[in-house]
Amino acid sequence: MRKYSNLKASVAPMVLGLAMVSTPAFAQDQDVQEEVAAGESVIVVTGSRISNPNLEQSAPINVVSGDEIDLRQATNAEELIGELPGVSPGINGSVNNGSGGFATLNLRNVGSRRNLVLLDGTRLVPSSLSSQTDLNIIPIALVERVDIVTGGASSVYGADAIAGVANFITKRDFAGVDMAASFGMAEEGDGQRFRTDVTIGANFDDGRGNAVLSVGYQTVDPVLQGDRAISQKTLFIGGQEIGSGTSVPTRLNGSQYDPATGSLVPTYNTFNFAPFNYFQTPLERFNVFGSARYEITDNVEVYTKAMFTKSTVSLQLAPSGLFGDTYQLPLDNAFLTPAIQAQLCARPANAALIAGAGYANCGAAIADGFELPTTINRRLVEQGNRQTDYVTNQFQIWTGVRGNITDNIDFDVYGTYGESDRAQTRTNWGLKSRVQQALRTVDANTCSDTSSGCVPLNLFGNGQNITPEQSAFINGISGQTVKTSLSVVNGSISGDLGSDSFLFADTPIGFAVGAEYRKYTAEQASDIASGTQDEVLGTGAPSPSYSGQYDVKEVFGELIVPIVENVPGIYNLTAEAGVRYSDYSNSGGSTTWKAGGTWEPIEGYKIRGIYQHSVRSPNIGELFAPVVTGLTALAVDPCAGANPVGNAALTAICIGQGAPAGSIGSIPVPSASQINATAGGNPNLDPETANSYTIGVVLTPPSVPGLTLTADYYNIKIKGAITTPTPGDILDPCFVDQLASACALIVRNPLNGSLNGGGDTPGLLLQLTNQGTIETSGVDLRLGYKLPTSFGKVAFDFSGNWTEQLKFKATPTSINRECLSYYGENCEPITPEFSFNMRTTVSIGETLDVSLLWTWIDAVSLEPLSGSFAGALDEYKSIGAYSYFDLTTRFSVTDNFEFTAGVQNLLDKKPPNVSSYVGSSTYNSGNTYPTTYDAIGRRFQVTGRLRF
């Protein structure tokens, strides 16, 4: 194609200048990148659809280069971008209790639904009901680089790019064979990682065409929390070793069975659940990626791509149990002792039920098998650990035609279709209906209802004597499948106005216009057990079947207008604008736009800025997910224990929320720092709006060759944000301010007044609304410098972030919660005020690189606005600044073979201990925050790579 070929000469000086900036990346801020393979050049621009290399874009772009990808020896895409300053932890391989079997991107900590993951500038099929893309599907072996637009990109890629995009750019025109194998493991001997990839490509028909095929296989072995010192015991905020109140022996209505006396006693033990969980979740993945292109004429090229990924992510939790749900317990249950029967009958609430049913005494009720509503806690240790497997099959195909309309104007028309099928399978969880059936007995060997092979369940005995036959009956495999699809048709025209420039500029105006049609479908298909409230033991919320779809029609346009060039005081002055109109079938029309510009007063000293307005439409999950009761984090319940005794106002609040008057003084504490919460989709949601801007400088002084310095201030504010309240947003207004409207959002267990139990305990009502606001701002700083030496070169790459604020307000009556530098149940994941990566690479000749990566995380502290942590140990209230060092050596053994060896967490820095009760189990796990701090320890990795 003439356009691509003729660009070589004009791009070469720019590429040479960019090459003088050190390539491990992060610090490079390149609006235009050139990929060179097999003698063919192509311009790829992220953040704009205008591909003129002489035009500068106003939005900052962070680049992870191919060199950095090699040095990191990454197994997954999340490892390439998850630790960048300004990128908050998403769901990744360090999340065990809270993972959905996929990895997400969370730019600026405004939520993974507010950024996009792209492949070569095009959308990927989402893997979740909330339109999140699974980073596990990215074909790492073919990734040339990753461009991260951190200033927002809604007018270019769509309104869901409020916080920006991560664009994975694949290698073009690859020719030859590239084979690589990598193996790593922790110093403790576990957590093995293996990755192998084979890529084969060739040009044909005198370079008019190219085809490439890449096949990869990866495995990651688990690391158990029980195999690390920090997480072998479940610690409470006060430093006590305390786990879940669902333990052994069995507890009835809060009192525990004493095998020695055959009666219930008020004290109880707890269960240490931490050792069974994973710090590193196991993964197995197989992926295939292929692409081909062919120039059918000098000006027209057809192209196609296809990818397929199959990944299996496995999760493990402590054994399941009867977690305080209410059961109808027959007084003639074959395993109840006379002492327990008498104690059950003597409870005032039960005595009233027995008398109300017309029984003269307890004996008559026992003889008739009268059933009493009873909360039961029992850890099913005999059943083994809870296992969950997620198997995802994803494919996507692209096909299109592109070329030149004139020497200055290109066109590109393509279509893509993708599907994701993520199947969840649970084993060793247990079914509540089976437990209820097994509690109704004729004798110790016979159920009252013998259907399905019922075996009576003995919850008593010595506390650990559930037989394999009993376990087999109450157990049951359950699961669901989430299917999503994406269809896109896109057509665009881009280029410049040729020799016609504007005002005092020689560079012509660049433009892009186009249209796009997208259709999303999503479906959750659950078996009966998974879709029924309370049926699968220990799952929290059920997953009822539902489906939804929507489509969107869009038109868009961009302009980059050089205004003045090469006059005194203005080396370059450029204006930029873009607009996108979207018509959503579920929410109507909306407009996003951007306006910005760059001013370079003298060569190498540039000021840039851009303002963007975005309108994000609610996704399928936000609109249509059924309202269900699940779990949320809470360490301390104000109504629990003796707290309300003698406090008339607090007692009235607790009773008003549904606690029985007789429970005051004995309301159980939250089970394992979790309480019930009821939430779901809201079909009445409106789109949310966001305004963001960045302003910064780019310094590439000609007097200091090889130096690039960028600093950009960013500010993002989202109004009408689609959000749910945090626990503190409900508890604080209720118990501190005594707002009746907030207290009405708390509904307690009708038997014992707790916030735990089954579906009869809604807990906190966390409805999705458009009442939220989210604000964040800060500065990104990037520095790259390459210093030639007598032995080779020394390269420095620095990428840092200072966050000024991170505020969240769920409703107009909520506080405007500042989460910057805080951790806790209301502020997750952690966002430090300062963080940076600094890579220093010493290259000796062309054969040896020695590279040190320094990652620094600022100190953080426990959120002060939550009253839940008043009793926390001082050592749990703050985490000091953390530094990690990774050392990598790369050696070219021959012209074709390269060997890389690395040590991560070189100094074996141990993670901070903050207990397991200050936050949610998604992020606060094993007494630390494993998504932010390394919980595995020193690790080693080696990679061999053969190219020819």
Notes on the protein architecture:
- With 948 residues, the protein is mainly beta.
- Helices cover 11% and strands 45% of the residues.
- It has a 22-stranded antiparallel barrel. Strands 3-8-9-6-7 form a 5-stranded mixed beta sheet. Strands 16-15-14-21-20 form a 5-stranded antiparallel beta sheet, covered by helices on one side.
- It starts with a helix and ends with a strand.
- The relative contact order is 0.12.
- Mean pLDDT is 90; it is low at 1-44.
Based on helices, strands and strand pairing, what is the structural class?
A: mainly beta
What's the tally of helices?
A: 14
Q: What is the strand tally?
A: 48
- Helix percent reads 10-25%
Overall average residue pLDDT: 90
The largest pleated sheet is described as: 22 strands, antiparallel, barrel
* Terminal Cα span: 27 Å
Question: Radius of gyration, rounded?
Answer: 30 Å
Q: Which strand-content bin applies to the residues?
A: 35-45%
Low-pLDDT runs of 5+ residues are 1-44
Characterize the overall form: elongated
The oligomerization state is: single chain
Please provide a brief summary of the model.
This protein has 14 helices and 48 strands. It has 948 residues and is mainly β.
Give the helix/strand layout.
Elements: H1 2-19, E1 32-37, E2 40-45, E3 61-64, H2 66-72, H3 78-81, E4 87-88, E5 106-107, E6 116-119, E7 122-123, E8 143-149, H4 154-157, E9 165-170, E10 176-186, E11 193-204, E12 209-220, E13 223-224, E14 251-252, E15 255-258, E16 263-265, E17 278-280, E18 283-297, E19 300-317, E20 321-330, H5 338-346, H6 348-356, H7 362-367, E21 371-379, E22 386-404, E23 409-427, H8 432-439, E24 441-443, E25 446-447, H9 468-474, E26 478-496, E27 510-526, H10 528-531, E28 546-567, E29 570-584, E30 588-602, E31 605-616, H11 620-624, E32 628-633, H12 648-656, E33 674-679, E34 688-699, E35 707-723, H13 727-735, H14 740-743, E36 746-747, E37 763-765, E38 769-788, E39 792-809, E40 817-818, E41 822-823, E42 834-844, E43 848-857, E44 860-862, E45 878-879, E46 882-892, E47 897-904, E48 939-947
Parallel strand pairs: 6-9, 33-37, 41-44
Antiparallel strand pairs: 1-2, 3-8, 4-5, 6-7, 8-9, 10-11, 10-48, 11-12, 12-18, 13-17, 14-15, 14-21, 15-16, 18-19, 19-22, 20-21, 22-23, 23-26, 24-25, 26-27, 27-28, 28-29, 29-30, 30-31, 31-34, 32-33, 34-35, 35-38, 36-37, 38-39, 39-40, 39-42, 42-43, 43-46, 44-45, 46-47, 47-48
